[in-house]
Design goal:
This protein is an alpha/beta fold. It is built from eleven helices and 14 strands. Helix 2 runs parallel beside helix 3.
């Protein structure tokens, strides 16, 4: 079986104290075609070396007919197959179950999750997938507008170069609202992902684009007990704020959202757990909880010390 490299092990020893007791709920193993081909076992080795309490895998499920995005496909061994070919989910579940047997006795909680790029035309597929497999955690994301990935450096110019900031504001938050109202998702991933590449096209005005548009989405999320992810990948890309920004996080708190998860959005072993400590500190400062999930039910991870679902209150009861 493949092993974590010595370089990665050295990185783990150097950063172990920053991850110990934390949980990473946004991790892309090699099924995601935009990730390095590292398997579940390798990520669990990395998580153990970092001192993580929990790791939740969230491979992409994306599909939009006619869209030339690699995320339409899944890496399964030597094959690249369409996302809707569910053989990969069967193999993924088997791999997670094997990892639980190997790493569970040492204390690592391994969660079977997924990140779904919402598309209103895919609701039947999403419904079927979520009812067929025993997911612990389901992240909802908006990656594409009008069939164009705004989170892809290669694709985003097709949208950003032709649309105004007001177009983006309307299109993005309309889809985000539908994502929440669909009822499919436990948490929203990187809710201001448009900042990743949009700044180069719209300048600083994009930082305030959410005002007046995101508030009703957050209130609906709170009403439906949909949580919010603190996604740390922006810091790896040179940003100074997480996804979401502090302002949006403040709006989420004011809207009544009480479920928050931490996610590195790792697409490489070396990215696992990155900047989770800082995100945890931020939530603690704002007196907001960090939650984990088992079979779609949230529970608290206070102060980075895990309370298992069998002995802890739901986040919604706090």
């Amino acid at each position: 079986m493949d092993e974590v490299t010595h370089d990665n092990q050295n990185q783990n020893r150097n950063s172990e104290h920053t991850c110990r007791g934390l949980s990473d709920y946004h991790v892309h193993p090699g099924y995601s075609i935009d990730a390095v081909p590292a398997n579940i076992h390798q990520y669990c080795q990395q998580a153990t070396a970092l001192g993580l309490e929990e790791i939740c895998f969230t491979p992409h499920l994306e599909y939009e007919a006619g869209r030339p995005n690699l995320n339409n496909y899944i890496r399964l061994g030597e094959e690249e197959i369409p996302s809707y070919d569910l053989r990969w989910l069967e193999e993924y579940l088997k791999e997670v179950e094997e990892a639980r047997e190997e790493f569970g006795p040492a204390g690592l909680e391994i969660k079977f999750g997924i990140e779904i790029g919402y598309n209103p035309h895919l609701e039947e597929l999403i419904h079927n997938v979520l009812h067929r497999f025993p997911f612990d955690f389901v992240l909802g994301a908006v990656h594409s507008i009008n069939g164009i990935s705004i989170s892809s450096l290669q694709e985003c110019p097709e949208y950003f170069s032709l649309c105004t900031l007001e177009d983006l504001r309307r299109d993005y938050f309309d889809i985000l609202a539908m994502t929440v109202k669909s009822g499919f998702f436990d948490c929203l991933a990187h809710v201001d992902i448009y900042r990743r590449y949009g700044y180069d096209y719209y300048g600083p005005d994009i930082e305030n684009m959410h005002r007046g548009a995101i508030e009703p989405v957050l209130k609906e999320a709170a009403r439906r007990n949909v949580g919010l992810e603190i996604n740390t990948s922006s810091i790896r890309r040179g940003g100074t704020e997480f996804y979401p920004s502090r302002e949006i996080l403040s709006m989420a708190r004011d809207a009544g959202i009480v479920i928050y998860t931490l996610g590195s959005d790792a697409h490489d072993l070396a990215e696992l757990g990155s900047h989770l400590h800082d995100a945890s500190v931020l939530l603690k400062e704002w007196k907001q909880p960090v939650c984990g999930f088992t079979r779609r039910k949230p529970y608290l991870l206070p102060q980075g010390v895990v309370r298992r679902p069998s002995s802890t209150s739901s986040c919604l009861e706090e």
